[in-house]
TrEMBL record:
Protein name as it appears in the record: Non-specific lipid-transfer protein
Family: Belongs to the plant LTP family.
Keywords carried by this UniProt record: Lipid-binding, Signal, Transport
InterPro entries in UniProt: Bifun_inhib/LTP/seed_sf, Bifunc_inhib/LTP/seed_store, Plant_nsLTP
GN (gene name): LOC120266482
Role of this protein: Plant non-specific lipid-transfer proteins transfer phospholipids as well as galactolipids across membranes. May play a role in wax or cutin deposition in the cell walls of expanding epidermal cells and certain secretory tissues.
Signal recorded as keyword: yes
Signal peptide: 1-30
A Pfam family the protein falls into: Tryp_alpha_amyl
Amino acid sequence: MKTNIVTTKTTICTLLLLLLFSTSLHLSSAAATVTCNTITTEAAPCLGFITGKVPRPPAACCTGLKQIVKSGTTVTARRAICQCMKNAIKEFPGVKEKFLSQLPKACHVSVSFPISSHTNCNKVH
């Protein structure tokens, strides 16, 4: 009977350690990548500009765009950012392609791909 209890406790401890280890790995990799939620949050101040309601993007918009671009350190990250941006564009009614394409220049930010709902994110390098 004691052997079964010891074996059960050992198994539970091992499973808990594996769970903790896998959770910490997941959190580490998640912290190293940007999420679509982060992109939406960073880009939200741009909404007035990309819908044509304000003539210039506010400072918070440009700061957010710079942060987004800065997080695109790999091709995979840039492709993910591109896809997140495309998804976000679809979520906001009234976004105009004309203003999307002007955003990087208006913010003095170099973006390695066109910001557009038509960008093929698989071709982003």
